[in-house]
Amino acid sequence: MDIENVRNANSPGASQGSTGVSGSGPSGRLHAFDGLAAAVLDKRGAVVRWTGTAADLTGFPAEEVCGRPVRELVADLPDELRGATEMPESGRVRLWHQCGDTIDVAFRTTKVEGSAEVLVLAAPTHHVADHEQGAALLRALSAQNRITIALHDTDLATVQTNAMPGTLDGRPVQPGARLCDVLCAEDAENLEAVLRQVLETGVPVVRRNQQVSWRHDPAQQHALSLSAFRLEDARGRPTGVAALYIDSADQLRARRHLDLAREVAERVGGSLDVVRTAQDLADVLAPAFGELAAVDLAHSVFDGEEPSKQLGGGEMSNAAMAPATAVWPAGIKRGDPIPPLPDHPLLRSIRHGETVVFGLDDFIAMVSDPHLVEYLVPKDAHSVMVAPLHARGLTLGAISAWRCGRSAPFTEDEADLMKQIASRGALAIDNARRYTREHRTAVALQRRLLPPATTDTPAAETAGVYLPAGGGAGSSGDWYDAIALPSLRLALVAGDVVGHGMPASATMGRLRAAIQTLADLELEPDELLTRIADLIQRLAAEAPPGDHDSVGGTCLYAVYDPVTRRCAIASAGHPPPVLVRPDGTAEVVGISPGPPLALSGMPYETTMIDVEPGSVLALYTDGLVERGDRDLGQGLRHLTDALAASCRPDRALDETGRALLADLADQVPRDDAALLLARTRAVPAADTAHWEIPADPAAVSKAREWATRQLTMWGLDDLLFATELIVSELVTNAIRYGRPPMDLRLIRHNVLVCEVTDSSSTQPRLRRARTTDEGGRGLFLVAQLGGRWGCRHGQNGKTIWSEQAIQGCA
To answer: What is the mean pLDDT of the chain?
Structure first.
């Protein structure tokens, strides 16, 4: 078959067996072609030479083509080529294939030097397009200064690369170079291991992040993202590895910035302590943001107060430094005041809320004092960033971050990040400052509402200690009290109000005042707690809507009598007291606790116990025995053991109380803790006298005689006249208005107490008698002759008492 026949067979009207398809050609034949066809034409356009690749492309051997015009191979000559006298330099045509199909080809021509012949090179159009697109892609990638392309042979030596000076380490990479010629040995070894795995397995690696250091600058770390795939020849045999090294420093920096911002949000602000919050802020910044970080705050911020509107030099102290292991200049210590700096435009910028970056030279020039530079600048530091802590219109202080050694200087985007961090940190510090102010106010109110820490009465010496809650809980309503009662008795109180802060302190103050008032009425402990429970109900009713359930509490009330050496105790939902005997043994007092004060309608029960002189009675609140690592029972046993070990006769009670509180309370207690210790005393039997009074008016004169003899024995002759009148009036009233049995008791201590007890519950009343009245002046005389007088009711009657001061007794 010759060319003409093929051409005629495929012209319009040819046989139906021909496909007539133009394009890529027959399947299997033209798809397999992968080369560059070449032919030489003479000046008339006839083929004079025909290569094997040309035969592969068209299917025509050389003997069928040579000597014929090349136009006979063209199936459809483009209009621009019709009538042309010379071969164009390039173009696209469709050629006939021997099988009758056509092939789209792209061609280029060039004249053979020293001859009229023309060399024609042709290839299938889609192959040319693929090569052109691949070349364009390779050129585009090679032009990217952030992407380094390297082709490695099977020994991983560099065959070709677009690495230019500044792309990797600032030095050109020569063909044949190995990664170890550019990178540090360890980094090169790690990367070659990855490339070798790709070469062996054919599994590509995509975006593998790697930290590397250049060989000539090992201290500087760089972030690279490696993607690699295996190169193969036409038979699928490995010929090398293509690697793309992408500079991921910006991505890594952005990720670090996000991580740092997230860590600030998570870690800073969890504490309501100003110094702790400042330290958390410094710990987040160093060494993640800078090698060293410090937080300086205005002096007033530490105390919870607002700083001055224009925060100047010398008005701040260091609150936090990080990391803890860092070596700071010898002069800087945590808590020390920051020396004033000279006025400078950059410092004024900081005061106006701007974040400022100083190079070392700029900072030294601004400070201008060599001694101050030595005091402030860390070793090897080369730059510092300072950001003000500005919140709610107040400048609380400043953060400073230092970079030292070979680390990179601060950048503008890092200054923006520092501004955000400083804003969040300032809000957290200001929240802690405001809490500190409120907490100190509440604690101050709480302490003002508490009684004196120590008391010394005939019944006992007492010592109370109080520890407010920490960790953001605020002060609570825990309190203690020691109330001196008539007849040398002593009331001991411990209580705990529901809630925290100022409302709890205010409720505690009202309860304490009410208990003191009711204690003066000398009510029995169970009766007193019943009255207090009623008061709590009224306070709850007065509370704002929604706060009714937050008004309540518990209370323990005990009355110790040094004459009888007995103690009456009642509890409103409060933990029982602990009794430490003189021999050092300790036990929890068994009582029958009633309901908490918020619950009414349930009775309270009084428990009587005997107490030896020299014993220690401990009242406390649940904050001392309840903590995270133990329940109430464990805490009570721990307290009992600690009291047995600490309450020694030779140790002061206040010292014992402070030691116990420090040992038993949490480091950051979640609840207030209060402890009241009372070391009991007893009135000697020789200082008391007692008589039974018969229900006979004649007993009045006998009672006067008896009292006179007793006072003479005690050497209280100066009180004889007044005491005779007091005894006469009290005994007369008992015989006239009371019921037997009746008793008269005298007690001598720093006062002389005269008591008359009868079985009647009638309440005596002081009144002013009229001129014509024959009676009604008895209690008036008692009130005038004694220092004070009163009446208390017991289970079996009442007791009217009168006190007179003894000269020379405090």
So the answer is: 81
